[in-house]
Design brief:
about 475 residues; alpha+beta; 2 domains; 17 helices; 12 strands; disordered C terminus; glycoprotein; golgi apparatus; FAM20; ATP binding; manganese
C-alpha cells in the first residue's frame, strides 16, 4: 500500500471533494478512548496469556513438536510475545470514528498491512462464529454466527489478531452459472480486492486486509492449542499438508484446502475491537434476498417497496438508508449478492456508518452484472453527494477506476489479485451506476436525488420506476 507521491491512486485518494463529509472527529465521536482501551487490552492479555495452565500447556505442546521436528530434521521456531501500546493494530482500533474505520493515509493502517503480511504467528484457532455454529464458544463475543467455509483466527507476536481465509479458487475461475449465490465459494482475493475498492471509493468501512503466503504446518498446526483444529490436518496423496473445517455443512476431506506442500496463500483481515470494548449489532438488510431455491422477497416484486421503507424506522430519517445505498453500490461493483445483514457500532447510534464485512463472495463473475444488487439505488433514487462525486471522479480517464485499482492492488504481496477482466468489469459497472443516478435525476430532479451527507432524508412518494432492462 506504499504508493508513490505522484501515483494515480494517491492523487485520487487525496482529491478534494467539496464538501468533505469527514470533519475531524470530536473525542465523543471516536469509538474508544485511548487510555481506557490500552488498560483494558493489557488486562485482557494478561488474564488470557499469563495463566499457569496456559503456559504449561503451551510449553508441553512446543516440546512435543520440537521432538517430532528433530526426528524429521526440522527446526521449530520460538517467538517472543510482547504487548506494545504503540502497536499498529491498537492504533487502528483507536482511530475508528463515527465517520469511518480509519482516516485517509492513516500510517497505522499502512503499518498494520505490513505487520499482517510478515509478523510471526504465535497462535491459531477456529473463529468464534464457527465455534458458535458448533455450540463451543463464548457467544457473547459473536455478533451473528455465520458462514460455513473454513477460516481461522491467527494471533501475531504483538497480540494483533487477523482472520485467515485460505485460497479456494484460482484467479481465472468464475462462479458456475448453476451455483446459487449462497453456496458460492468464499474467495480470499475478493476480500483483498474489496478492501482496496472500499478505500478507493473513500468509504473506509472495510477493515484492513492483506494477502499472505502462510506455512500452514509451522504457522497453524504447530501453534494451535485447539485439538479439533489439529485433528483435521492430514497429508494428501500428493504429500501436501491439508486441513478442513469441522462444521455443520461442507466439512469433509474432499473440501479440504491444501498447501504446496505447506505453503498456502490466503487473506488476513484485521479484527475489530472486541464486543466487550466496542459493542456491535447485526441487523437484517431491508434488501436481503431469499435464501431458498424459489423464494422472492417483497423488494424483488414490488418496485415501490422503498416508499414503504422510507416510512419505517430507522430508514425514515438520518443516514441509514443513504448508507444502505452506499453499500449497494459497493456490492454491485464487486458483484456480491450475499449481503443479508449489516453491522453497526452501537456507540454511534443511528448516525454511524455501516461496516462492509464479509466480502469473499464478490468478484465471482466478471462477465455478468447483477443489476438487482442496485435495487436500493434504483428504487429509492437517493445517493450521497460525496459518493456521487467520487464515482464521477473515478469515471474520468485520468482516474479510471480500473487503473486506480490495478495500481493499488500492486502493493499486495499476492499480486495479481484480480484478473484483467475483473478490473475492466469495474469500469463497466461504474457506468451503469452513474446511468441509474442520471435516470433518477431526469425524473425527480437533482435536488430530490443527490443528498448532502449527515442531513435528514426526506421521503417522497413513488420514487421507484417499474423494473426495466438495464442499459
Amino acid at each position: 500500500m506504499d504508493l508513490g507521491v505522484n501515483s494515480t491512486s494517491r492523487r485520487c485518494l487525496r482529491w478534494s471533494l467539496p464538501p468533505l463529509v469527514n470533519p475531524p472527529p470530536h473525542p465523543a465521536q471516536l469509538l474508544q478512548e485511548a487510555e481506557g482501551t490500552s488498560e483494558h487490552t493489557a488486562r485482557e492479555i494478561q488474564e488470557h496469556f499469563c495463566q499457569a495452565e496456559f503456559l504449561e500447556f503451551a510449553q508441553s505442546q512446543h516440546k512435543m513438536y520440537s521432538v517430532a521436528a528433530a526426528v524429521s530434521n526440522v527446526s521449530v521456531a520460538q517467538h517472543d510475545v510482547t504487548y506494545d501500546p504503540q502497536a499498529s493494530w491498537l492504533k487502528f482500533h483507536l482511530g475508528i470514528s463515527r465517520y469511518a474505520l480509519y482516516s485517509r493515509d492513516d500510517p497505522a493502517v499502512l503499518q498494520l498491512l505490513r505487520d499482517m503480511q510478515s509478523m510471526a504467528v504465535v497462535s491459531a484457532d477456529y473463529t468464534q462464529d464457527e465455534k458458535a455454529l458448533k455450540g463451543a464458544c463464548d457467544c457473547t463475543q459473536v455478533v451473528k454466527p455465520s458462514g460455513h467455509h473454513l477460516k481461522l483466527a491467527l494471533k501475531m507476536r504483538n497480540f494483533a489478531k487477523a482472520m485467515f481465509k485460505p485460497m479456494r479458487q484460482q484467479r481465472d475461475d468464475q462462479t458456475p452459472e448453476d451455483v446459487f449465490y449462497f453456496v458460492d465459494f468464499q474467495r480470499h482475493n475478493a476480500e483483498i480486492a474489496a478492501f482496496h475498492l472500499d478505500r478507493v471509493l473513500d468509504f473506509r468501512r472495510v477493515p484492513p486486509v492483506a494477502g499472505r503466503l502462510l506455512n500452514i504446518t509451522e504457522e497453524v498446526l504447530q501453534v494451535t492449542l485447539n485439538e479439533d483444529l489439529r485433528s483435521v490436518f492430514f497429508t494428501s496423496p500428493a504429500n501436501n499438508t491439508c486441513f478442513f473445517a469441522k462444521c455443520l455443512y461442507v466439512c469433509k476431506t474432499e473440501y479440504a484446502v491444501c498447501g504446496s506442500p505447506d505453503l498456502l496463500e490466503g487473506s488476513l483481515s484485521a479484527y475489530l475491537p472486541g464486543l466487550s470494548i466496542a459493542p456491535r449489532v447485526s441487523i437484517a438488510s431491508p434488501f436481503t434476498r431469499s435464501y431458498t431455491f424459489a423464494g422472492r422477497e417483497e423488494w424483488e416484486v414490488n418496485p415501490f417497496y422503498c416508499d414503504t421503507l422510507k416510512q419505517m424506522y430507522p430508514y425514515n430519517s438520518g443516514n441509514r438508508l443513504l448508507n444502505i445505498i452506499d453499500m449497494s453500490v459497493f456490492d454491485f461493483l464487486t458483484g456480491n449478492m450475499d449481503r443479508h445483514h449489516y453491522e453497526i457500532f452501537t456507540r454511534f447510534g443511528d448516525e454511524g456508518f455501516l461496516l462492509h464485512l464479509d466480502n469473499a463472495r464478490g468478484f465471482g463473475k466478471h462477465s455478468h452484472d447483477e443489476m438487482s444488487i442496485l435495487a436500493p439505488l434504483t428504487q429509492c433514487c437517493l445517493i450521497k453527494r460525496s459518493t456521487l462525486l467520487r464515482l464521477q471522479l473515478l469515471a474520468r480517464p485520468a482516474f479510471r477506476l480500473s487503473d486506480v485499482m490495478r495500481e493499488s492492488l500492486q502493493a499486495d504481496p499476492l499480486r495479481p489479485i484480480l484478473t484483467e477482466p475483473h478490473l475492466l468489469a469495474l469500469d463497466r459497472r461504474l457506468q451503469k451506476v452513474l446511468r441509474a443516478v442520471q435516470r433518477c435525476v431526469r425524473r425527480l430532479g437533482e435536488a430530490e436525488v443527490v443528498t448532502r451527507d449527515f442531513v435528514k432524508v426526506t421521503a417522497g412518494p413513488q420514487t421507484a420506476t417499474a423494473p426495466g432492462r438495464a442499459r
